[in-house]
Amino acid sequence: MEKDQTLKNAMNEWARVTEDPEMLMTYEVNQEFQVDETLTLKKAEKQGKKRAIKRVALRMLQKGMDNQTISELTELTEEEIEQIRK
């Protein structure tokens, strides 16, 4: 029952928004902003994870582990590991 009311409210709000061109444009711009923000956050998160993995790989190198083992454990390519080694 509560879901029905939520859906009804959403449909009413959409009808209200689409009747006003300025309101619709504002809504669309807001949606684009939210999508851009989400993509930016996901990209930053991915970059952060990659940096963390590279720090772990550096410590593995410092402990004397070979590139192949490090690659298997971190999923970094051997080329990426060589870049870290430098």
Characterize this entry briefly.
By secondary structure, the chain is mainly alpha-helical. It has 4 helices and no strands. 5% of the residues are buried.
Note the beta-strand portion. Answer: under 5%
| Number of contiguous helices | 4
Mean pLDDT: 91
Contiguous low-pLDDT stretches (5 residues minimum) are: none
Q: How many strand elements?
A: 0
| Topology pattern, helix = H, strand = E | HHHH
Secondary-structure-based class equals mainly alpha
Shape verdict = elongated
User: How many strands, what sense, and barrel or not for the largest sheet?
Assistant: none
Gyration radius (Cα, Å) is: 24 Å
Number of domains: 1
* Distance between the ends: 63 Å
Q: Bin the helical content.
A: over 70%
Write the layout of secondary structure elements.
Blueprint: H1 2-19, H2 21-62, H3 67-74, H4 78-85
Plain-language structure description:
This protein is mainly α. It has helices at 2-19, 21-62, 67-74, 78-85. The protein has one domain (2-85). The chain is built from 4 helices and no strands. The longest helix has 42 residues, at 21-62. It is elongated and about 65 Å long. 5% of the residues are buried.
Keywords:
elongated, mainly alpha, Transposase/invertase (TIGR01784 family), 86 residues, single chain
